[in-house]
């Protein structure tokens, strides 16, 4: 065999070998994150779809949906503006929203916080802020103090007042929440009597307001610990236009 042919064969073998090595996964390639829940999907940095409840999709086509309790089933009976599903809460917890007059009895209804085993950790009473003798929505407020030894999961349960005690007249709204040190609670981000309200906690106003339950990317900006709801120079409640909020909103467009 001629020397030139041997050289050609060696070159071909080297090219094939290099190509094979190039196509193989690198040894130091990072392992693909294990994803079995919505929270793990978001933590892995995968795409969050514009929907309500929000959905996260993995590269292999699996979709995980955020847990919002039974909020969508009860939206025509009771709507909670604070806390929102999945929100970090701390004690004392300010609870607010609107409920139809039929949810109350004597202008109030009970609320409790329970752990994953169903144990009640705290209770409070929601009080109507206007005439409750109606079938329309009536705003309510309540303050709950609690002590939790872990970060959950926990569920805030808003019970329909049932003076009869009959099971067919009972109902409840269940909101999944987590416990934090309070740095991102809505109470810590408001001042001047303003409240963070709306179905996605996207509105800064002087009183609770109902809104449609939809998700837009910019809503996440208003749920950040840096988002502040306060009175402006015109003495109106509005989001404080900080550099961080402006940058977040610009990126969400």
Automatic annotation (TrEMBL):
InterPro entries cross-referenced by the UniProt entry: Gmad2_Ig-like_dom
This protein's UniProt keywords: Membrane, Transmembrane, Transmembrane helix
Domain Bacterial spore germination immunoglobulin-like: 78-161
Protein name (database record): Bacterial spore germination immunoglobulin-like domain-containing protein
One Pfam family matching this protein: Gmad2
Transmembrane segments: 6-23
């Amino acid at each position: 065999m001629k020397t030139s042919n041997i050289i050609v064969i060696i070159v071909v073998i080297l090219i094939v070998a290099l190509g094979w090595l190039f196509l193989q996964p690198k040894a130091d390639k990072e392992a693909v994150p294990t994803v079995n829940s919505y929270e793990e999907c978001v933590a892995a940095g995968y795409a969050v779809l514009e929907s309500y409840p929000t959905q996260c999709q993995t590269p292999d086509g699996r979709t995980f949906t955020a847990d919002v309790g039974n909020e969508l089933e009860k939206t025509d009976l009771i709507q909670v503006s604070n806390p929102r599903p999945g929100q970090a809460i701390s004690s004392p917890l300010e609870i607010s929203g609107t409920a139809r007059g039929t949810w109350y009895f004597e202008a109030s209804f009970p609320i409790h916080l329970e752990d994953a085993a169903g144990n009640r950790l705290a209770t409070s009473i929601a009080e109507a802020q206007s005439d409750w003798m109606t079938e329309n929505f009536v705003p309510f407020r309540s303050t709950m103090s609690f002590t939790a030894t872990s970060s959950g999961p926990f569920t805030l349960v808003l019970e329909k007042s049932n003076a009869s005690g009959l099971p067919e007249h009972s109902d409840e709204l269940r909101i999944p929440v987590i416990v934090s040190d309070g740095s991102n609670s809505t109470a810590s981000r408001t001042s001047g009597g303003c409240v963070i309200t709306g179905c996605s906690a996207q509105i800064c106003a002087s009183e609770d307001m109902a809104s449609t339950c939809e998700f837009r990317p910019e809503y996440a900006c208003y749920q950040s610990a840096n988002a502040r709801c306060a009175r402006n120079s015109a003495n109106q409640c509005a989001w404080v236009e900080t550099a961080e909020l402006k940058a977040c909103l610009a990126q969400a467009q």
